[in-house]
Structures are given as C-alpha cells and as structure tokens.
C-alpha cells in the first residue's frame, strides 16, 4: 500500500489528500455543531430548573461584593486591627495546608513510582495503586474531614489528614504523568551496576523529575490553603471558622470578612511569588550544571 | 542586498557574536563554518529575528531588519525561512499540514485553527513535496518519517514561505551521509533554480567546499575567514578551528568519497 502510493503520480496524491481534508473538515464541522447545540441545550435546561432565573439574577451578581466593599471602605481604619486579630488563625490554616501538602506529596511520590509503567516495583499491581489513588481523589475532603472530626473531635489534625489524603491521590496522578516522560536510560544504567529499586528511583528518576514535582506540589499547596480555609467552616479551626462567623452574622461584620479575604489573597500572592522564585532557582541551577 | 554591520550578541559578559560585519550583494549559497560555540547559530537566529541583537544592524534591500517589531517582524520572518538541525516540525501533524505552516503569516488564526487552507495552497504544498521526492508520504504524520525525510519536509515548509533568504542551521548534522547529500543537493537547487539566497551553518569542510559559492569562517564570535571555497585550505581551516598540525579533515569526514582518501592513513585509537 505504502509502496503503491509512493509511486503514484502527483495528481492521485492531490486527489487523495483533498478527499482526506474534505472528510476532516466535515467531521470538524459536525463536531462543532454538536458542541454548540449541547452547550445551548444544556444552558436552557439549567436555566429552566433554576429557581430564580439566570437573566433576572444576573444584574444582582455584584450586590454582595459591593455590600462587603462598601462596608469595608466605611470602616477602613479598623482593617489593620482585624489583620492582627486574624493573623494567628491564618497561620493555623497555612500550617494545616503545609503539613498536608508535605505528607501528601511524600505519599504521592511513592504511589506514583509504584503506578508508572516501566518504573513500577510490581508491574501487576499498577491497577491496584491507580484505583487506590482514584478513591483518594474521588472522596471530597469535606466528607473525610467531617467523618474524622466526628471520630477524633474538632481541630486541625483531622483537617490535615483529610487534605493529605486528597493530595496524595491528586499529586500521585500528576507525578506519575511526569514519571512517564522521564528517560529510562539512567534507570537502566543504575540497574546495570546492581542498584536496588529504591536506589534506582531515588538516584535515577528523582533528579529528572524533581523540578516538575516541586512546581506541582507548590500549586497543590496553594489549592490546599483554600481547602483548609473551607474546612474551617465545618469545625477544623483556622481562618475559615472566623470567616464563617463574620459572614453568618451578616451586615455589620463585613469589614471582618473583607479583612479575611484580603489576608487569604495576600497569602496566595506570597506563596505564588515564593514558588516561582524557587522554581527559577531549581531550573537555573540545573542549567548551570549542564553547561559545566 | 544583505548587509550585516557590527552585529553583536552578548549573553551577560560573554559575547556569542562579536561585531560581525558581512556584505552579500547578490543571492548566492553561503556556508558558515566554525567550531561549536563559535556563534554560527546565534548569527542565523538573529538574522531570522528569533534572537534580538545586542547592538549592530542587519539591512536587507535598504530596510533595517533589526528595528522591526510585531507584524513587520513576522513579515520579515516569512521572507527569511529557517531550517533547523532537529527539523522542528510539529510531530503529530501530517506532512502536508506541516508544509502549509509556511503560509501561516498570510492566513488568519481562526482559519488555520480549523485547518481551512485554500485548495491552491494544498496543491502547491504537494507539488513542492513532489519536487523534493517525498509526495508519497503526504498524508503521514511527520513523526513517522525518517530524519532525512523530515528535513526535506522542513525544506518544503521553507519553500512554501516563498522566502528571499533560506537560513539552514546545521541542516545535515543529524543525518547519515546519504541523506546529508540529498538535503544539500536540495538546498543547492533552491539557490540554482529559484534564485534564493541560502546561508547554511556547516560542520563539514568538504560540504562547504563542494556546495557553497562563498565560505565564512567564525571563531569565538568573530569572522576570521571570508572567501571562496578554493581559498579554504587546510591551513586556514586549522586557524578557524584553533587546531594544531594533527588536524585532519579526512579523519572525521562524513562524505562517502572521503573514504578512499582516508583508508591509507588509519586513525590511531587512544
């Protein structure tokens, strides 16, 4: 077949390729039409079932932020005092997130190595570890946290465990995708000198994938800060508990809510800046080594 | 036609290209030789504006290329095609689509996103592939082709741009001798048949001698030789590469003809 087409005259090739292109265009057009139809139909269905109606409510979208901002600007002088009040609970929230990310990332590294084709210690067990990670990802943090709070009592530890569990599942999947792109040549080199599986993973794979691991872990840290703030709503302590109080007491407390939002925003900005600096250093260092 | 004036590119304190001045008054085939790190690639990348010059200027037909921005710069890149050592095709797209990428500067993003190229362009792409002898692979993915075939697809993409200058950054360094010859023959044909200027970075002196009308030698960012292939003697080559008397071209030549010359002097293995 390939031989035949190599020797056929250009006009045949032209005609064949034009046919192919036309067919592709038809497929693309049909797919686009289906996509648009589904989007429109889905929106209409959702809008019908909506209690308030999308278009009637749309103009009120900014009412709540406007109210919060209005009240906060009125009591602008009290904001610094609120920052001082809520700072300790912010530290608690960040601590929960940090400990959970660290613990989750360590589990994720092991799980990812065990579930990557070509690297796995027991290749037949790959599906088992994959499903285990699926379960960790499928369970919402808030459900795990509620169960643990019921068993262990309220506080930061149940929240930390809940977030760490989700983190191992989520990071494990991402790490395993990073592992798939790692070159197997260094691993083979280490195997040829008689290194054990753990030695091959730590010395052969980790140096290749560490920068990618770090950037995924730092992204996860940001997500976990937000998650641990949410868990404060269900009794895990931290800044989420204060936010819940500020919001549920409604008007008159919105300046506190605004202060908490600002603190959370500031934390995310700081983490983002630190993580990009760290990542630059890691890749820059690697480049320096490469030229030596 | 193409005038390079005191062109310099500095990376920190390190000057990759150091005050290079060259003048080409008509389209010809130019070979640039020099050791790795001599600044050959950086020079070509500055010509294509993939890299910005630190100082100096490039003038083409009276127009200052180094000062171009935005759409004008992309327009220049269309007129000044680039061929890479590692081919730089989109591996998962078919060969004709890769060649059609040569027209991207003329087409809107929306049309190209949905692969809506005019039929004339598609026909022309296939004709160019036919001219290079690989039309039979038109519908295959680029990654399914061998290195030599991929480089010819890259050349087809360059021709599709209808450029005035074709830059080739070590086009044959990743190819075996047979494919290297085919690719160099194709580049020579682009010059002879279409009258385009071809500037190629080369690693092998015999290739530069056989295919080029003019040879430029670079060492540590500076031009140390500029002349005809005949003037490129072994002594000059030693100066360009900073080598001593033990330097022998035949020892590492990739030309099949060089085999006969080299068999009488076997290279000692250290």
Automatic annotation (TrEMBL), chain A:
Keyword field = Cell membrane, Membrane, Transmembrane, Transmembrane helix, Transport
Q: Which residue ranges does the record assign to the ABC transmembrane type-1 domain? A: 90-275
- Membrane-spanning segments: 26-46, 96-120, 141-165, 257-278
UniProt entry tagged with the keyword Transmembrane? yes
Q: Which Gene3D superfamilies match?
A: MetI-like
The record gives the membrane topology as: Multi-pass membrane protein
Where, subcellularly, is it found?
A: Cell membrane
- Keyword Transport attributed: yes
Q: Output the Pfam families linked to this UniProt entry.
A: BPD_transp_1
In the record, the note on similarity to other proteins reads: Belongs to the binding-protein-dependent transport system permease family.
Q: What is this protein called?
A: Phosphonate transport system permease protein
Organism this protein belongs to = Thalassovita taeanensis
UniProtKB/TrEMBL annotation, chain B:
Can you provide one Gene Ontology molecular function annotated for this UniProt record? ABC-type phosphonate transporter activity
Note the SMART domains from the entry.
AAA
What is the name attached to this protein's record? Phosphonate transport system ATP-binding protein
For this protein, the record's PROSITE patterns field holds: ABC_TRANSPORTER_1 (PS00211), ABC_TRANSPORTER_2 (PS50893)
* Record organism: Thalassovita taeanensis
| InterPro entries per the UniProt record, alphabetical | AAA+_ATPase, ABC_transporter-like_ATP-bd, ABC_transporter-like_CS, ABC_transpr_PhnC, MetN_ABC_transporter-like, P-loop_NTPase
Q: Which GO terms describe its cellular component?
A: membrane
The ABC transporter domain is annotated at: 2-245
Record flagged with keyword Membrane:
yes
Q: Which UniProt keywords apply?
A: ATP-binding, Cell inner membrane, Cell membrane, Membrane, Nucleotide-binding, Translocase, Transport
State a single Pfam family of this protein.
Answer: ABC_tran
> Does Translocase count among this protein's keywords?
yes
